[in-house]
Write a structure and sequence with these properties.
Length: about 425
């Protein structure tokens, strides 16, 4: 992501800063059948109108009194053109003029892209360097098939450990809690990155200090539970963050204190699996409707031991270390069954280990520690090898035998360890 984009203004998730006049917005809605009006009840022409040095000719101004977005075109047609520019080039649009920058800084522009099906999904990976332990993050544009390093994370998370990560609203990436690398102990701090403004923002701190805890999103609300406070003991408390109210509140406590290492949302319930106070394996489920926790002992959690994701109402998990074979949970049989197999396994080295599974444009994407990404269309069927596609990484060129020899020679250790992987849309 180019550093020239640092002048983009902050984004208020509850306000529209598109600075488009009312007549232009109405005309855009008429020319684009699938679009809707701006969510704001009142839409002013501009809070800070531009002051050109020389007064333009009367024909060069739009009906709202401002210079047109594109000379010679009404603003509604100009917006219809700009929303079709690829996301990778949006930073260039912001450099054209102040009015373009204001348009791209508001929710109207990206909300219109989303309603018309033009929004693009990118994969973001937060990883730790295997040599110095430094935490950084990268982004993958599936259309270009290559990872790009992003500017440094906020200072408090450049060396943190045990922090949580979640996405709200489809475009806000939250980092929360974790062990403070400077002062020691757990943190309450919460920050989030907006894919629309390309900037980091502060959010209200959590109510309790936590590290190594579980996170999930249900109904656009962020839940955290369990973990450690830094004093050596486990936590039973759980909290929820409501972005509409911009505040945290406690929910029901867990049935037992635990440090989760697996977490997934399925069927409207949050399932967590982790270690208890005596290092025993525990599994619990939280129901937001009843605000209660319950111990789970069914086949869903007993056979669950790898990264997972939900798609189409079903939960999928890696059935091998490299994630080239996936399985799904069958509610009727109360058991996990293999659903897709690429038949092209990459070995059992740490570098080829599947670190996360995410959903990207209706497909499951397996992200490995060597930054290779494989996507599969589970709807294509178990025996359809054409459903697999390599989106990024050079690991697909390495055969199983080559990977095995590298592992025996000691070169199979991962140079990077992916901590979190999420998908943001803009």
């Amino acid at each position: 992501m180019d550093t020239r984009n640092r002048t983009a203004p902050l984004v208020d998730s509850s306000a529209c800063l598109c600075r488009v006049n009312r007549s232009s917005a109405a005309a855009a809605a008429r020319r684009l059948p699938a679009s809707k009006a701006c969510v704001q009840p009142s839409l002013r022409a501009s809070i800070h109108p531009l002051k050109p040095k020389a007064s333009p000719r009367p024909g060069d101004r739009s009906r709202g009194g401002q210079c047109p977005l594109l000379p010679g075109l009404p603003d509604d047609l100009a917006i219809a053109c700009l929303i079709r520019v690829p996301r990778a080039d949006h930073w260039k649009l912001r450099l054209v003029c102040r009015r373009w920058c204001r348009l791209l800084a508001g929710n109207y522009f990206y909300g219109l892209r989303r309603r018309l099906g033009l929004a693009e999904q990118w994969v973001y990976a937060v990883r730790r360097d295997g040599k110095d332990g430094h935490v950084s993050w990268d982004v993958l544009d599936p259309c270009r098939g290559a990872w790009r390093a992003l500017p440094p994370l906020p200072q408090e998370y450049a060396g943190a450990d045990g922090f949580g990560c979640a996405v709200l609203g489809g475009c806000h990436l939250y980092l929360l809690g974790g062990a403070d690398p400077r002062r020691g102990g757990a943190m309450r701090r919460v920050v989030f990155y907006s894919a629309r403004s390309n900037r980091w923002h502060r959010a209200p701190d959590m109510l309790r200090r936590r590290q190594c805890f579980g996170t999930c999103v249900i109904g656009n609300r962020l839940y955290v539970a369990g973990g450690e406070s830094g004093g050596g003991g486990g936590l039973r408390s759980a909290e929820v963050f409501d972005p509409a109210k911009n505040r945290w509140s406690f929910v029901a406590e867990m049935a037992a204190a635990m440090v989760p290492f697996l977490s997934a949302v399925h069927g409207g319930r949050w399932y967590v699996k982790g270690l208890g106070a005596q290092q025993e394996v525990l599994s619990q489920a939280y129901s937001p409707e009843t605000d209660s926790w319950s111990v789970v002992l069914d086949g869903r959690v007993t056979g669950w031991r790898s990264p997972s994701a939900c798609l189409g109402g079903r939960i999928y998990a890696a059935d091998c270390k490299d994630g080239c074979r996936l399985r799904t949970y069958d509610d009727a049989a109360d058991a996990w069954t293999t659903c897709v197999d690429s038949k092209q396994h990459r070995g059992s080295s740490q570098a080829a280990e599947a670190a996360a599974i995410v959903v990207l444009h209706g497909r499951l994407c397996v992200v490995r520690n060597d930054m290779s990404v494989s996507a599969v269309d589970v709807a294509a069927g178990a025996g359809n090898l054409q459903g697999w596609e390599t989106l990024a990484g050079k690991a697909h060129a390495k055969s199983f035998v080559t990977g095995l020899l590298s592992n025996l020679a000691g070169r199979g250790r991962a140079k990077n360890h992916i901590l979190h992987c999420q998908v943001l849309e803009a």
